[in-house]
Fold these 4 entries.
Entry 1:
Amino acid sequence: MKLSKRFGAFLLAAVMLVSVLAACGKQEPAPTEAPAAQPTEAQAAATEAPTEGKEPVELTLWTTSRNSDEFTAERQAEFEATHPWIKLNLVVKEGDPGNEFYQAVAAGTAPDCINGSFTMMDKYISAGIVAPLNEYLDKWDETEQLDKSYLDMFKRDGNYYGIPYQVMPMLFAYNKALFEAAGVTEAPKTWDEALEAAKKVNSGDGQVAGYATLAAEWTEWFFQYYVWQAGGDLTKQNEDGTVELTFTDPAVIEAAKYYQKLSAEGVLPSDRTLKFGDLLDNFARGKIGMMPFAVDWVIDVANKGMDLDDLGLILPPAGPSGKSATAIAGDCWVINANTSKEKQDAAWEYISFITSKEERALYYENLASKGAIAPVTIPRTDMSITDFCLKIGLPSCPLLVRSAAWSSTARLTSVPMLTALCRRFCPAPMQIPRRNSLMCRHRPRRKFWLLSTKLTRSNAEQNRQNRQI
C-alpha cells in the first residue's frame, strides 16, 4: 500500500488529534485450533538449544483471525526459538477474547494469558481472575519505560494487574470522496450538521447510506457516546458504590430522538441487521458516508481496499450539550490467576517479550512498511507513533506529549482525554483551556495548547460502559 502526500497530511493531523481516547466488544463463534506457524531457522536451531534446566511448559493463548498474520506468526516463532522450553498453543477465538475471558475462567477453559480490553480490567481485578504482576515488574529491565499514566490504571492496593499494550481513541470518520461528490465542503461539527450532510451524501436508492450506527448488536456501545454528547450518561454511581440506570435521563431521550431522526430521514442503511464487521466493510467500499470510528480501524478499512486519501477523521460532532464527548480505549496483557505458577511464569516470558521495546518497534516498522500506520498511542515513554511516521515520510511532531493530569489520583477522580493539538493541522476550531500551554517548534514563539474534550468520567465508569474492539 503506497501512501500519497494527502494521506500523509491526514495521518499527521490524526496523530496530532490523538493522545488518549477509545472503544468496545464482540461475541462470536466458539474457538478453533489456529494453524501452526511454520518454523524459522532460529526456531529449528532452538531444538538443540539448552533449556537451562527448565521444565517444558505449554502456554495457551487466544488469538483472532484478524491478528493471525504472517508477521505475528514469525514473531511467535521467534519467541519459541528464544524460549525453547515454552510451546505456544494458539487457539482462534473470534470476537473479543478479552471480553469472553471472564466467562471462560468460570468454565475452566480460559487461556493462560490474554490481550484484553482496558474496559474489562475493573471486572477482572474485582473478580480476582487476573494475577498481580509485581514480582515480574520488579525484575524487568523495561518497567521504567512503561508509561506510568497507563500502568497505574491497573494498580489496586499496591498491585499491578496489567501491562498496557496500545491505546486508541474513538473518533468519527467520514468519506471525503462521497462528501465531495455530494457538494459537502466541511466536516460536520454538530449533530444537525451531520444530519444535513448525511441527507446530501445519501444516494436515495439504498446504495449509499449517508450515516451509520450499530443497530443489530452492541447497540449501547455507539449509543452511549450520543448520550454523553447530549450532556448525560446511561448510569449514575451512588455514594455507596452501587450503580443506578438513568435511561430516563433527558440526555438519553435526546440521544434516542436523534437516532429516530436519522431513521426518519432515511439516511441510515436500509438493512438494520448489519453487524459491526458489515459496517466496516460497507464504509471501506464507499457505501457509508460517516460513522463513529476508532483509530485502529484505519488498518482494517485499508486492508478492505479503501483509498486512505478518502478517509477523514474528526472528533465526534457535538450534541445538544455543545460537547464533543467520546471515550478512550486500549488493550493490555494479563495473566490468568487460576493457572499454575509454571504457566504464569511462562506467560510473563511471553508478555515481556511481546511488549518489549524491540518487539514494539518491529511491529510498528512492519505496519509502516505497508503504509498502515494508525494514529494510536504507544503506552511507553521511550517511543512514540511519530517515530514510525518518519519511516513513511512524515515529519516527527514535537507536540505529541503526555500530561501530568494522568496521575494515579486523576484516575480515581476524573480522566480528561488529553490531545496534543497543533493549529497548523487542526481540522476545526476547538475549545482551548487556559493552562497546559507549550511552544510549538513549527512556528517559533507561537503558543499551542493541550485540549481536554470534556470527558471527565472515572475509570470505573468507563469500564462499565465501554467494550473492546
Entry 2:
Amino acid sequence: MNWFPDKMCSVHGPKKAEGEINATVKSVSFGTLCGVDSRERGFRREPYMDENEKSDPVIQLNEVFPGDTNALNTLFGGHLMSIMDTAAGMAASKFCSEDVVTISVDALKFKRPAYQGDIIRTIAKVVWTSPRTIGVHVTSCRLSRKEWDPEEICSGFFFMVAVDGSMKPTKVPQFTPDGEEENRLHRMAKQARDGMRAGGS
C-alpha cells in the first residue's frame, strides 16, 4: 500500500531559462503530508491512491524519550495529545487530499501511563464526515521493547476542517461506513460532534 505520491510533476513547460523547473520528482519529503502546500511551490500532485486506500488508517510509531516524561517518568499527557493530533491530521489529509486544521477534540480517555523507552503506536482512521468536516477516531497504545503486546493508553475523536490555499473551509468527500465496527464509530463520532455543537464548540 502506497500512501505517498508516486511522483510530482512540474506545472512549467520545457526548460527555457536557467533555474526554471522541468523535472519529474520520484520522491517527496514527509512535509508534503504535514501542511506544506505543494501548489505554492509550482507543483501539482497526480492521483496516487484509489478511494478505498484513502480511508485506510494511518499508523504512527513514536518512542518515549527522557524529555517527553514528567517527574514520575511517565509520558506527558500533552505530548501524547500532540502525537494523536498529528496522526489525525495525516489521516484526514490523506482522505480528502487537502490541508486540514483541527477544530475540536472530544474528551480524551487516558487509561494507563506510558513510560520512558516505550513505543507509542497510534492508529488514526476517518470514521465520519460532514460537508466540510472530517471526524477521525484515534487510538494510542504503548508497547515495550521486550513484549510487543499493545496496551491501549488513550483514545478519542478529533475533528478536522479541510482548507484551501486561502485558509477557507472547503468541501470534502463523504465517508460511508461499512460493517458493524465502522457504523458504531460513525454513530459515536456524530454524537460527539453534535454534543460539541450544542455546547458551542
Entry 3:
Amino acid sequence: MAKKKSALNRFFSRCAIAMMKSTSSWKQSSRTRVANWLAAVAWYAIPKRRKVTLRNLELCFPQWSPEKREEVAKGTFRNLLRAALDHSVLINGTREEVQNYVKFEGKEQFIELTKEHPVIVVTPHFVGLDQGGIGINTFYRGCSLYQPQSNPLWDKVFYDARKRFSDPVLIPKSNSAMKEVIRAIRSGLSFYYLPDMDHGKRNSIFVPFFGVPAATLPMVSKLAKLTKVKVIWGIAETTPEGYTMHLSAPLENFPTDDPEADTLRLTQELEQFILKHPDQYLWSHRRFKTRPDGEPSVYENL
C-alpha cells in the first residue's frame, strides 16, 4: 500500500510539474486566470491551510470584519497559486526574460553598495520571494539558506531554479548552517535571509507581530553585528504584469547593542510593508505555533 501511494504521489507530482512548466509561454493574464481557478478549488480542498490563514488574520486584524478577512485570505490563495505557476518563467525563461519579468527598484544602489562589501537582504515571506531572489541571481551572486522539500521531485525543481544564472550558494538548513553563512558573508557573498518564521523557542525571543507575541530569531541583528555588514530590505511585490523587487537603502543605526530592540524594529517595519499588500503575505503558515509559557495553542482544533 505504501509503495502504491508513493508511486501515485510521484505520478501526480510529475503531472503537476509538467503542467506548471508548460505555462511559461502563456500570457500573464492566462496564468493568473488558471491560478485563480486553482485557488478557488484549493480554498475548499485544503481546509487546514484555509483555517490557519483565517486564524492568523483574525489574530492580527481583530478590527477587520469577517468578510474582509475572508477576502484577504482568498486573495492570499490566489496570489500564492499564481506565484507557483509563475515559477515556469523562472525555470524556462532566459536571463533577459526573467529580468523583464522581475523588475527592480533600488537595483543601481544595491550594485554600488555591494561592490565593496556584502549586505544582508532581509526578505520576508511575501508570495513572490522566489521571484525576487532568482531575479537577483540574474545579475548578482549571493547565498541563502535552503530548506529541502519533502517531495524530492518538487525539491529538484525549486533547487534547480534557484541555482540558475549565477550559481548562488545554497546552504541546507542545519544546526551548523549559520557557521557556513558567516563564512560565506566573510568571503564576500551577500546573504538573502527570511526572518519571519517560527523556529521554536530555542534561541528565539517573543516580539509582537500585529500585537500577537511571535517567536522570532534575533538573527539579523546578531549576524550584522558579527559580520559588520549593512542590512537592507528586499520586498517582493506581485504586480499585474509580473513582480517588482524593492531593495531599500541600508537601515540606519542598525544594528544596535540590543538585538531584541532591533528585532522589534524589523517586525514593526515588516508590518508596514504588509499593510500595503496584505493579500500578498504568506498567512497560510503557522506563524504563531510557538507560544509563551502558559499560553495555549492558537491553532487548536483547526
Entry 4:
Amino acid sequence: MKPTEKSAAIRRAFAIFAGTEMPCTRYITASLPAGDYLRSYCDARRIEEYCRACGNYGRIWGCPPFDTDPLERLAGYGHIRIIGAVVTLDAKERHRPADVSEAAAAAYAIVEDARRPMDARLLEAEKRHHGSRALFAGSCLLCGRGGCLRTEGKPCRYPDRARTSLEACGFDVARTAKELLGLPLRWSEGPVLPPYFTLVGGLFTKEKTEESEWTHA
C-alpha cells in the first residue's frame, strides 16, 4: 500500500469507529531476570530476517540495521518488566471493517491509538527508575509515517524520546507474549479483526519493579 493510500485507509478506519470510543486497553506484565530473558528469548539473526521484510528496515532510526549491537546497551541490567497492552474487541467491533483493506487500516489505527499512551508510560517509568531502559512495542511513531530523517542521513529529531523495540533488538515477541504473558498474538482473518491485539514492550532495570505500576492506572 502506498503512503497516500495508507493514510486514506487509516482515516477510513477511524471513521469506522466514529461516534464510539476506541477499544479499551488493559495492561498485563511479567518480570524475570534480564539475563534469563536474553538467553531464552533473544534470537537476533532470525528476528532480523523478519525486520528485513518490513518497509521500515533501514529507514527509521529505531529499526535495524544498527551501527552498534543494541544488546550492548542492555548489559548490566538485573531485571526486565515485560509489559503487554491488550486491546480487546467485541463482536460488533471485530466485524466493522467492510473488506481486507479496511481491516488492515483499522488494525493499524487501533494499535497506534494504544501505542501512544503506552510509550508515554514507559518513558515515565524510565524517569522513576534511574538508569533504566525502555523498549517500545513496535516501530517509532514520533515523526509519523515516512517522516524519519534517517533516509536523509540526518540524526534523530527526538533522541530523548525515541526508543527502539524489543523485536528490533532481536527478541522473539511472539514467544514472549505467549509464554510470559499467556496471550498468543492474534491476527485478522480476512476483513474480521482479531478478538484482541497485544502490544509488547519492556523496561530493563537494575532492581525488580512492581506490577502495580502498570495494573493500576
